[in-house]
């Protein structure tokens, strides 16, 4: 039996809707938060263990690379938060249509960009 549907295996030509991008980014940000949780818990444990440990963590967090990592973790957290609020709003029955989903995705991206830039200004 021969299938009549077209087969497109070139991933660069597939055009995903904005809702797919926000969903994929929401999942990626969740994975980033899960992985970075170990780093954050280690830093918390070290800072609470002794006064010297606190000084080491404080000195480490003042480097530009550490600030970039913190901004990345905070960006993942903020995007995940904004997209999660969108999901909660959709659970209440608001924005469940195709047009509402597209508008909600655009709002999530716009709000996330603004909040992430503000977080970067706050950190640097």
Automatic annotation (TrEMBL):
Pfam families cross-referenced by the UniProt entry: Sdh_cyt (PF01127)
Main location group: membrane
PROSITE patterns listed in its UniProt record: SDH_CYT_1, SDH_CYT_2
Organism per entry: Pseudomonas jessenii
Protein localization: Cell inner membrane
Subunit structure: Part of an enzyme complex containing four subunits: a flavoprotein, an iron-sulfur protein, plus two membrane-anchoring proteins, SdhC and SdhD. The complex can form homotrimers.
Topology in the lipid bilayer: Multi-pass membrane protein
Textual note on the cofactor: The heme is bound between the two transmembrane subunits.
Protein known as: Succinate dehydrogenase cytochrome b556 subunit
One GO cellular component term noted in the UniProt record for this chain: plasma membrane
Keyword Manganese: no
Chain's gene name: sdhC
Function summary: Membrane-anchoring subunit of succinate dehydrogenase (SDH).
The protein's required cofactors: heme
Keywords: Cell inner membrane, Cell membrane, Electron transport, Heme, Iron, Membrane, Metal-binding, Transmembrane, Transmembrane helix, Transport, Tricarboxylic acid cycle
Binding site for heme: 80
Superkingdom of origin organism: Bacteria
GO biological processes: tricarboxylic acid cycle
Pathway: Carbohydrate metabolism; tricarboxylic acid cycle
């Amino acid at each position: 039996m021969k299938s009549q549907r077209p087969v497109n295996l070139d991933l660069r030509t597939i055009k995903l809707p904005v809702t797919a991008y926000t969903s994929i980014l929401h999942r990626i940000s969740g994975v980033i938060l899960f992985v970075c949780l170990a780093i954050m818990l280690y830093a918390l444990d070290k800072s609470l263990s002794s006064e010297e440990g606190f000084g080491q963590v404080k000195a480490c967090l003042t480097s530009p690379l550490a600030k970039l990592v913190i901004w990345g973790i905070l960006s993942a957290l903020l995007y995940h938060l904004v997209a999660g609020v969108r999901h909660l709003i959709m659970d209440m029955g608001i924005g469940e249509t195709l047009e509402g989903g597209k508008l909600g995705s655009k709002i999530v991206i716009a709000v996330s960009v603004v909040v992430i830039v503000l977080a970067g200004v706050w950190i640097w």
